[in-house]
Amino acid sequence: MRLLLGILLTLSLSGSPAVKFDSMVKDFGVQSRSVNELSCDFSFTNTSSKPVSVRYAVPNCSCTTARWTQGEIAPGASGVVTVKYVRERYASSFEKLISVFFTGEKKPVILRIAGSFVDDDESLSSQFPYRHSVLGFDEADFDFGEVHPGQQKLHSFVVANLSQKSATLSFSGLPDGVSTIEPEFLIYPKSRKEIVFYYTPDSTSWGRRQCKVVPKVNGKESDAVDFKAVVLDDFSTLSSEQVNSGAYYSFASEVNHFGIIRSGSSASARVGLINESDTELYIRDVSSLTGGITVDYPAVVGPRQKAWLNISISPSALVKGGNTILFSIVTNSPLKPYAEFEVKGVVE
Questions:
Q1: CA 270 to CA 264: how far, in whole Å?
Q2: Are 202 and 275 members of one domain?
Q3: Are 299 and 307 within 8 A, CB to CB?
Q4: How are beta strands 135-137 and 267-275 bridged, if at all?
Q5: Which member of 110, 168, 263, 311 has the lowest number of beta carbons within 10 Å of its beta carbon?
Q6: Spatial distance between the Cα atoms of 69 and 203, rounded to a whole number of angstroms
């Protein structure tokens, strides 16, 4: 690093003849990963016979910003360029350039900052806050977002071993269609490892998918983690004309109720749905994450037709007082493939 910085400093001496910097390279050395920001000042003197000013300073990376002395700087007077670097996620080292342009000069002065980062107990704990035994995860749950039947999508996260001994990691309860590269991962002491999941939903998996996945650290179960995904049709190959002419629907009412019922009773509700297009509407899935609920719905709704979603709610899904149950619906509508609606009611 010192040899490289020496070479860079020598190359930078061809900067503006109108100003002289005290130093054009800042080596921050080795820093802990718990450090998120680093900053330094580059002081300079106007060595010319005329006033100069900094026109602008341009870093070569969005992780670096620069501020500078505003206005004219008289001959013999000094100014400063302040540089701030925000650590990039998982960066092990960095080297950034800042081009400083002065009035009356065609070529910029090139300033350089450099440094490196190492893991320590504090940095690992702060970057991987979701603890599972001796391991820390960098995310609380596994969210695949939108996925499509028959198409593989990957989701990755990073785990760190916070202990002084090697640890193993495996998972139980993975839903159908989800796999990992290895059945068991080995994570060395005070190190990190990227874990990759692959999900390929089949043609019968539609809508919101959610379940509990259990991490096993050194063979022992830890707290369950939520697995989440929404399985939808793939409309990425459709033209804008095809999207706009595709199926589209609306709900017959903005508010849906099951009324007022006695405690221990079942409830039911009907939710109206109107196909407002000239294309058949395919209902892929209507469901709720609340247990004890079933929904009966037609697979196809004809053009300009109205259909009903018939909802049955068991007593186990209800609590005394006001109830609001969230449902999701998945269709072949390119403009509204996924929507949510609520059914409300009161248990006396």
A1: 20
A2: no
A3: no
A4: unpaired
A5: 263
A6: 62
Domain final residue, candidates 231, 255, 288: 231
Examine the domain organization and report whether 199 and 282 are in the same domain: no
CATH number at residue 320: 2.60.40.10
Q: What's the total number of domains in the chain? A: 3
pLDDT of 121: 67
- String of b and e for 154-177 (b: at least 16 CB within 10 Å)? ebebbbbbbeeeebebbbeebeeb
Whether residue 186 sits in one domain with residue 219: yes
* 112 plus 182 within the same structural domain: no
Quote the CA–CA distance of 344 and 321 in Å, as a whole number: 11
Q: Give the tens place of pLDDT for each residue, 269-320.
A: 999 999 999 999 999 999 998 999 999 999 999 999 999 999 999 999 999 9
The order of strands in the sheet holding 293-296 is: 249-251, 267-275, 306-313, 293-296
pTM over 0.70: no
CA–CA separation, 271 vs 297, rounded Å? 10
Q: Which residues is 211 bridged to in the sheet?
A: 227
Q: Which among 142, 125, 138, 304 is positioned nearest to 210, based on CA atoms?
A: 142
**Owning domain of residue 316:** 240-347
Whether 55 contacts 102, CB under 8 Å: yes
Q: Which two tokens stand for residue 153?
A: 């999508």
Considering the domain architecture, whether residues 155 and 67 belong to the same structural domain is answered as no
Q: Is 263 found in the same domain as 205?
A: no
Q: Note whether 113 and 130 are same-domain residues.
A: no
pLDDT tens, position by position, 71-80 = 999 999 999 9
Pull the structure tokens for residue 73.
Answer: 């700087």
Residues 155, 99 share a domain: no
Q: How far apart are CA 274 and CA 305, in angstroms?
A: 6
Whether the pLDDT of residue 1 is over 90: the answer is no
Query: Would you state the structure tokens that stand for residue 81, as one six-digit string?
Result: 């360029």
Give the sign of the dihedral formed by CA 274, CA 276, CA 281, CA 287: negative
Neighbour count for residue 95 (Cβ, 10 Å): 17
User: Of 65, 95, 118, at which residue does a domain stop?
Assistant: 118
Q: Which residue carries 């490196």 as its tokens?
A: 116
Round to whole Å and give the CA distance between 294 and 299.
Answer: 15
